[in-house]
């Protein structure tokens, strides 16, 4: 039966491309990696780890209250974070939070502008959709190999691998949110002499905000899902405890760190979802009939 298949392999081409890339630009990639580590990740992680836990909990509570406008929910989310500290995983939590913050910011800086460009060009959308499909379906270990060759072991390659894995939903949902803006509103804005930039900033992006925030939420959740894999290439944090639990068959340690990751996911999910919902007061005012 094997005789019916024409022999085909892309191994040599891919290997040659990666080796050429590493040979020509390896030093630049490693210099960039060192800069990100020295000027972004290490200062942020050091600040979080040096901050008193009560201050971090207070800031988290204020952010949760600003998002949800509910004191009860905010206190509940703070209590969940406090439980991570009770597990003895507070320092690991700060390390994970620093990596996630940098990865999420990079994903947002890449994802939202790319989604905006996709929404303005059908040709670009047709070109990028297959790329996004590959990014979402390709196993993470496959693109970890070239990332490790370019950046080496450590936290920076973990961040870039996380960005590759987590950015597609944000690009897709940004594009979708802008494309689903009511055509009548767009035509009305054009009729008032609105420029393309004013239309985007004043009409399309505000109306697409729920979809964009849903993309940010999905990107953050997918970034958090990478913490265990990131620990395999040198990133410390909660994922490292899970990995050690697997290696030593310490079920309790792995379970405890897993629960901490779930708690962090719940906290981030509730806050980002709350920011994605339209303000009730503003919606109510828009729904009121105009005075005669």
From TrEMBL:
Query: Record's superkingdom?
Result: Bacteria
Subcellular localization, as worded in the UniProt entry: Cell membrane
Q: How does it sit in the membrane?
A: Multi-pass membrane protein
Chain ranges of the ABC transmembrane type-1 domain:
93-272
Membrane-crossing ranges are: 75-93, 99-119, 140-168, 220-239, 251-272
Q: Keywords assigned by UniProt? A: Cell membrane, Membrane, Transmembrane, Transmembrane helix, Transport
Q: What family does the entry list?
A: Belongs to the binding-protein-dependent transport system permease family.
Question: Protein name, please?
Answer: Proline/glycine betaine ABC transporter permease
Specify the species.
Answer: Crenobacter cavernae
């Amino acid at each position: 039966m094997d005789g019916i298949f024409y022999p085909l392999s892309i191994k040599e081409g891919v290997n040659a491309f990666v080796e050429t890339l590493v040979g020509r630009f390896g030093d630049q990639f490693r210099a960039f990696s060192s800069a990100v580590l020295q000027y972004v990740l290490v200062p942020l992680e050091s600040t979080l780890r040096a901050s008193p836990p009560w201050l971090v909990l207070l800031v988290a509570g204020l952010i949760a209250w600003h998002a949800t406008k509910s004191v009860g929910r905010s206190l509940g989310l703070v209590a969940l974070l406090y439980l991570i500290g009770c597990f003895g995983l507070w320092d690991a939590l700060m390390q994970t939070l620093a990596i996630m913050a940098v990865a999420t910011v990079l994903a947002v800086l890449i994802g939202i502008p790319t989604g905006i460009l996709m929404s303005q060009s059908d040709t670009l959308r047709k070109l990028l959709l297959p790329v996004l499909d590959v990014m979402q379906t390709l196993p993470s270990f496959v693109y970890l190999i070239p990332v490790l060759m370019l950046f080496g072991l450590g936290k920076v390659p973990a961040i870039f691998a996380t960005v590759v894995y987590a950015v597609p939903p944000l690009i897709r949902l940004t594009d979708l949110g802008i494309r689903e803006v009511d055509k009548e509103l767009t035509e009305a804005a054009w009729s008032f002499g609105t420029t393309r930039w004013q239309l985007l900033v004043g009409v399309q992006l505000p109306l697409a905000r729920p979809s964009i925030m849903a993309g940010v939420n999905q990107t953050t959740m997918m970034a958090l899902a990478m913490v265990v894999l990131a620990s395999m290439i040198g990133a410390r944090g909660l994922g490292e405890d899970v990995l050690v639990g697997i290696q030593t068959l310490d079920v309790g340690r792995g379970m405890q760190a897993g629960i901490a990751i779930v708690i962090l996911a719940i906290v981030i999910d509730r806050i980002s979802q709350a920011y994605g919902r339209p303000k009730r007061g503003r919606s109510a005012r828009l729904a009121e009939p105009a005075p005669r």
